[in-house]
Batch of 4 targets.
Target 1
Amino acid sequence: YAIDGEEAIKKAKEIKPYAITLDIMLPKKDGFVVLNELKTLPETKDIPVTVISMVDDKDLGLSLGAAEYLIKPIDKKELARKLEKYSLKGKKEGINILLIDDNPDDVELLSSFLEPEGIKAIKAYGGEEGIKLAIEKQPDAIVADLIMPNVSGFEVVQRLKKDERVKNIPIIICTGKDLQEKKKIY
């Protein structure tokens, strides 16, 4: 989670995540400038960037190097398709996704999106439990909230990426406070 474009670039260089989701409407540096910079820096140029924004300029986003360009809001089927496309490398059966969030309602909501698609949800109700379950269960992918007490989503990503047993598991960040009300992922 970064609050502006400058911080996004700094954190991407520092964390080197599996993938990046990027909004276009950012303070200090807009998302298109951030995307261009991410795609030209040696440390971040190979990280896939998915733009998720209210700004509808897909052609520009893709021309600057975005892997995907999605317009908010994203519905539950879209989330499932992205998980399959980016995280599961064509695996069709027995898909396990670890959901990490301190809010049980959000874990249950995400689970209700995935299970009808044939994806088994492994549920963790905080960062520390999520790290433990990632190592123990070896899921195909992880969906994590960023804002959690004690062990944040950033710490989850950092710790998992340093652990040889789980460092290659794709992590998708999904955060938003109005998930219950709108049943969408923003």
Note: Residues 76-87 form the longest helix (12 residues).
Target 2
Amino acid sequence: MNYFNANKYKLILLISFAFLLLSAATIQKKYDNIVHPNILFKTETRYILPTSVVLNFSFGFNNIMADLYWVRAIQDFAIWDGTDPFYLQEYKNIAALDPKFSYPYLLGILTFTSRSVNDVNGNISTLDTIEPTIKIGIENLPDNWEIPFYMGTGFQLAKNPEKALYYLKIAATNPKAPEIVPSVYKSYLRNTLTGEAASRALVKTIYETTESETTKKILEKNVIINDLVEVLQNVVNTHKSKYGYYPSSIDDLVARKLIQSSVELKSDFNISINRYTGEVKVVAKGVE
């Protein structure tokens, strides 16, 4: 008798779960079919349940729900106009349900970059909207170099050098990243410091401490300063090969138009160049 009662309760529980899942799917379908009077949309729009609701009614099936939203995100890119918030909400739900699911982060970066750069309906700030979601992936998948690398190249295309350097640096310091990744980062850093995009905000991005644990690990290794030394050392060597002697300061590099500005660098770093050996030393101000 006890055996029968135990099985009966299991059956009731199973039927209850099935009913709840069916109800959730039905509710979402009803929302999808909502007609929006007095509003004209050039493309299809829809309502996506808020993240808090999805988490509270997933009943432990987080991975399955994340997969469903992932499939939907793939399908919905074709109808997304670049501005409707429903598409971003799909990625937010995926990250909340399964923060270690890597593929949606990569697709999200590609699609939002595409809308930022190529789509007449999008704008440069479109990529910024998905950045908080991408940070969830970077924090939960510290061994994944592709997510920050894609994000960095996305911001590079969107003409945001500060954020491009930040994410490319995270990717470049990942021990699992292929050799090409640090090369891309250093090349972009060199081109940025010696090109028209040089600015104080950009230079500060190279070394400034943030709340990100990933960034703190990078700073602890002192690799940020090392990168700046390497770039400046190359410029100093270029000066020597062209003019036959080493510069005595970065002002000499500016005078020869080998870098754009020394004011931004000197405001945040103490930089010395040995005029006899060409050795460059860099120390962030306030940490001597």
Note: The two ends are 79 Å apart (CA to CA).
Target 3
Amino acid sequence: MEDPKTFKFGAQLLSEKVYFLDKDGFPIRPIYQKDTETGIHSYRVYTNGGNTKDKDKDIHCHKELAKYLIDGYSVRCKVRSGKSSNRLLGSRDVAKLVIEVENA
């Protein structure tokens, strides 16, 4: 498993290198969350475009995460309010996607 390029924020791990900026320049960062059943961390990417808890992609690498976000898929993120919610490039509060992936 590749280094997911995360940092600890409270009890959560957030993406350090791949994130959105909202319209005020605040970072909306994907959560590298721990599955309660398996104990495995992954980014939760939704390829069905919905906001359901069902997931069909567990992404373990920030480079792969960047590819899914560029392709328009939604991902579970930490938003300004401190809550978690799905975001994609077309979300109302998203201004742009920031990607700092070395040697991508």
Note: The first helix runs from residue 62 to 70.
Target 4
Amino acid sequence: MLTRPLTQSLTPQCCSAPAITISQADAALPQSLVSRAAVSTAPPYYDNIGYADLSDFFYVWLRRSLKDIHPDLFSTLLVPKANELVATPYRFGGSRDAARTHFEEGLHEAFVRLREASHPDFPLTIYYAFKQSEDEGDEDGEDLGTASTGWETMLEGLIQACFSIVGTWPVRTENSSRQRAQGSNALASSVVLVCRPRPEDAQQIRRRDFQDRLHEELPPALRTLQQGGIAPVDLAQSAIGPGMAIFSRYRRVLEADGSAMPVRTALLLINQVLDTFFAEQEGEFDQETRWALSWFEQQGCREGPYGDAESLSKAKDVGLGRLVERGVLSAQAGKVRLLRPQEILGTNPSSHPTAWEAVQHLAGAIASGEEAAADAYQKLGAAASDLARDLAYRLYALCERQGWAEEALPYNMLVSSWRGITALVEQRRRRRDDGLRQGKIAP
């Protein structure tokens, strides 16, 4: 949302290409948009970034030197903020409700105008990378997981403007070395939503039917995201796309009382399916890994009572002594503790490593780079499989839920680098095979 129009024509000097016109205007005003246009946009991120406030830092200095040259651009003492589409309560007397209403209404108006202006042959594409989680239940008090205010508000405006999500692409857009990402679980990807006007004859379905479709269609989409190397920190955000694609294809999803399901409830149900997806993957792990995963969920890498660990080991039919022998568990003085990846770094895996061992060795090595992780991958043999990658996803999800940012980072790094690691291993294998064929390497 921009405060005043600005138009500039650029004529290329190097070729005979037509002049380019660059304009800025309020997207909620119909006369400001070109009709039958291909629209690709990144909407504002709720209350996450106050662009006008940030601009003041530079504006005051630019105004001192340029106000006589561009008086129309620097006519105010500070950057105008009244029309900026952000949900900042301090601009509304501290009222969060008023700020939210301002954002919702403005975003809805913008999407309505974009729908009117969009060319029918081209989809609307939206780039979004907002991360904000809130633990809440639905209106009946059912605890469903986490929702996101930023996503909720943006999607509500999109759906109210009668758009349907027909495709989603996670795109690696954020530099992991940027200051915002250092030492935090900041998003590494944006999610591109591909939207088209929802057909006027779209059906409506009941809540139970919507949940059935989520359980049927979302897990294959999640497996595709995992196989594509989407970082764990981005998986929950990326899952919103295919989940909301199901929700938005219908005119309404009806609750038991006949009311329309809000976007917030749909997001909570999508995250519930995501949790179920991870839980079902646990059945594929070996017994020792399942014990370690259960203990990690309770204690993380902190010390816990030996008696509690032994009770869990009996339930999982696992011997604690075996886990100590494998070098993943410390047991002494009546206390038990899972070793951190950095504590395992430099040790050799057992002869038949479990999925847990594989992940811890790889997570410890990745801190030294993909070459070091590729060395560990080769030592682990068959244990370094897609099952280990799935476990890293699960461990990250557990860490994020518990707020263990430091413990989560190695698992996020491991999955993000998985394709690079496996490519290095394959490259080494081909070089070795070529050397054997050419007689340069002894069998």
Note: The chain has a mean pLDDT of 83.
